[in-house]
Amino acid sequence: MGLHARPAAIFVQKSSKFLSNIYLEMNGRKIDGKSIIGVMSLGAAHGQEVKLITKGEDEEEAMAELKEFLESDLKIINRAMEKFKQLCKGIFRRGGDLWSPETLIKSSSQ
Fold this sequence. Notes:
By secondary structure, the chain is α+β, with helices and mostly antiparallel strands. It has a single domain (5-109), classed as Histidine-containing Protein, Chain: A, CATH 3.30.1340. The protein is built from four helices and five strands. A hairpin with a 2-residue loop joins β4 (92-94) and β5. The radius of gyration is 19 Å and the shape is globular.
């Protein structure tokens, strides 16, 4: 999954609290880590190597917190999102009708 939508928004939110400039670099492309458009346009997929660059007065603190997010927290978020995605795959066709988990729950309780 990587840095898409929700994880990207969390990264930008964390980056924006620092005074330092934050950059992400991948495949020779460097983007502003405080820009949601930039982070999402990077297209970093799960497992891809991304270079984190921090420059400024609180660069060490920024590096430590953002590195922790990318190495640990992001994995937890991605795992949770994958599980949620699997749960949402409950929509399937049955006899020409569209069924969802909600429909099945309603049907079984009636």
